[in-house]
Amino acid sequence: MQKEGYKESTTRSCVKVLKAVARRADLLNPESVKAYLATSSLSMSRKQTVIEHLDRFYRWKHIPFTRPMYHRIRPLPFIPLETEVDALISGVGARTAVFLQLMKEAACRPGEAWMLRWIDVDCERSCVRLMPEKNSEPRERKVSSRLLAMLNALPRKSINVFHDPEADPIRSLEDFRRTFINQRHRVAERLQNPRLLQISFKTLRHWKATMEYHKTKDILHVMRLLGHENIQNTLVYTHLVEFHDSEFICKVARTVEEAKALVESGFDYVTEVEGVKLFRKRK
User: Fold this and answer.
1) How far from chain centre, in Å, is Cα 239?
2) What value does the mean pLDDT take over residues 147-171?
3) pTM of the model
4) Cα angle at 240 between 238 and 243, to 5 degrees?
5) Cβ contacts of 2 within 8 Å, gap of 6 or more
6) What distance in Å separates the CA atoms of residue 91 and residue 84, rounded to the nearest whole number?
7) Distance (Å, rounded) from C-alpha 82 to C-alpha 97?
8) 139 - beta bridge partners?
9) For residue 174, what are the contacts with CB-CB under 8 A and spacing of at least 6?
């Protein structure tokens, strides 16, 4: 896989899957492997992923393999309220909070956020530059003054914001993910909100994409935001924007400064009534 140019994370995932299958079936016997998959409790999507790795392995070993008919079922992602996202960010540690805020605003993948360098943070233009994963294009994203302040409060121990360049990037990200899961559990228990347990790193990327499509109704804009190569991966967000009126916070602005502050906080202008402007934002 390395010779074929696969990413290190994909190669490790493949090896991990093959080792797991080998503990439960005779890996060199495709019929034994298919019998294990047929009776296992793995989801259809997971079985499809396993089959893709097995197919690659058997081609390498020149072992005939007829792929079983498993079809990937893509569930709709969980989209939390913004108040829940902000409550989680406020409750975790400082470094984790900055990481979550970055993904919330930039819609980046966890690996892209993890490899962010200090030279990619442009305070003068209020933006960050993201080096892509999964063969997508490099992207530049505008960020808030709040995120810039949070970034600048972190100690600058290396060229990377979060990742120690001397540590293995994949393993260190997994360690960081486990730390986040422990912090998330404590916040959910303290706030008595089990919905917070459904928020993962990828959830924040899904949240941003959903909010952007709700605001712009421009699927190509969302596609560019996420760095997708295939628009089919982006179209899922068109099914997630049927919000009810009760899910919005409404604010009024009587001056230009008040209106400016609301817009900077993510509120959208709705209308003007009796000389005041009404803005709203999803909770």
Assistant:
1) 18
2) 91
3) 0.72
4) 120
5) 8, 11
6) 11
7) 15
8) 130
9) none
Domain boundaries, the chain: 8-61, 82-208, 245-282
Identify residue 207 by its one-letter amino acid code.
Answer: W
**Domain over 82-208 is classified CATH 1.10.443.10:** yes
Write phi, then psi, for 277 (nearest 5 degrees).
-95, 135
Q: Quick one: tokens of 80?
A: 């939390």
Residue 273 and residue 184: Cα distance in Å, rounded? 41
Confidence class of residue 242 from pLDDT cuts 50, 70 and 90?
low
Least Cα distance to 128 among 106, 153, 156, 154 occurs for 106
Strands annotated E in 71-194: 121-122, 127-130, 139-142
Which among 177, 199, 178, 176 is positioned nearest to 87, based on CA atoms? Answer: 199
Cα–Cα distance, 114 to 168 (Å, whole number): 12
Nearest to 48 by CA among 67, 30, 22: 67
**Cα torsion 221, 225, 227, 228: sign:** negative
- In one-letter notation, the amino acid at residue 169 is P
pLDDT at 56 exceeding the cut of 70: yes
Measured in degrees and rounded to the nearest 5, phi and psi for residue 221 equal -60, -45
Model confidence at 197: pLDDT above 80: yes
